[in-house]
Amino acid sequence: RKLFFDTHALVCLLEENGFTTQQSEVIVSALVKIMNTNLDMIYKDMVTKVQQEIALQQVMSDIGGVKKDMIILEKSEFSALRSENEKIKLELQQIKKQVMDEITKVRADNKLHLNLEKSRVKELVSFAAVQIVSFYCFVVQHAQQDRALTQTDRKIDTEVADLKTMLESHKLDNIKYLAGSIFTCLTVALGFYRLWI
């Protein structure tokens, strides 16, 4: 084994720093033992080139065997998978056809329901339009009747006012005639009274 440092130089360095020659050699020999022990531990985990080549050949032969097995399995499994795949494709086509039939049925039902609802809504709209028109006619008639009533009320009010003014004028005329008649009667009575006295 080769050491990658100078042991004599290490001994000299230790002696320069106050160690004796014997102490320096003991320290260096202990370091050499420690390093050798460490190298032994490292070498136990390592392999030689020959061992590595043998292990590589074994791995390559195992890989070759696995490849052959894979090819055989692939051929047999691939044909089985193909047949399974074909079966699944046929089943999927049948399911797709069933689904499409169901979809067309549902669409036809929905169209029928929509058409029925449309016709029902149209009938309701036409009925509502007739109701609205009749209500509008009723409102118009009611408005015309209200106008006629208001005109009649106005006419009645004007006639009543005219009658009141006529009554007032007749009352005044009657009061005038009455007052005139009373004065005439008084003057005649006074005239007779003077004649008797």
Describe, in plain words, how this protein is organized in 3D.
The structure is a single chain. The protein has a domain at 1-46. With 197 residues, the chain is an all-alpha fold. 93% of the residues lie in helices and 0% in strands. It is built from three helices and no strands. The N and C termini lie far apart (198 Å). One of its GO terms (cellular component) is mitochondrial inner membrane.
Question: In brief, what are we looking at here?
Answer:
Keywords: Coiled coil, Membrane, Mitochondrion, Transmembrane, Transmembrane helix. It is found in: Mitochondrion membrane. This protein has a domain at 1-46.
The low-confidence runs, each spanning 5 or more residues with pLDDT under 50, are none
User: Whole-number average pLDDT?
Assistant: 86
Number of strands: 0
What gross morphology would you assign? elongated
Give, in order, the helices and strands.
Answer: HHH
**Proportion of residues in extended strands:** under 5%
Backbone structural class? mainly alpha
Main sheet makeup = none
Please, how many helices?
3
How much helicity do the residues have?
over 70%
